[in-house]
Amino acid sequence: MRNRCHGVSSVTGHTRQWQPPTERAQKARENAGQIPRERLRDFSYNFCWPVRTLRVKGENGRWQKRTPAMVAGSTDHVWSLAEWLAYPARFVQRK
After folding, report:
1. Ordered alpha helix ranges (H), 18-90
2. Which pLDDT tens digit goes with each residue over 54-69?
3. pTM of the predicted model, to two decimals?
4. Strands annotated E in the chain
5. Please, which residues have CB within 8 angstroms of residue 19's CB and are 6 or more apart in sequence?
6. CA within 20 to 30 Å of 49's CA: 14, 33, 37, 55, which one?
7. Closest CA relative to residue 89, chosen from 39, 31, 32
């Protein structure tokens, strides 16, 4: 009797995930161009897109929209995409 987990043989499931090191390096090179695009998406999300679950009730009883950057204290307003794209980028060298 085979040892099964969710209808897939455990041996088969593990061997499908393994890739030779050369294939892993090739995939890393192919995906290298996606990193800046993902960072742009993440940063614009944090500054430009209000999140409904982060909103707070203002003094006048109306809901105030907030972004993750506003909650973290990085900014005091929701940025427009034009404002965000015009902001000069500062690159910090990671250690």
Report:
1. 21-31, 34-48, 68-72, 81-86
2. 999 989 999 999 999 9
3. 0.54
4. 4-5, 8-9, 56-57, 63-64
5. 27
6. 33
7. 39
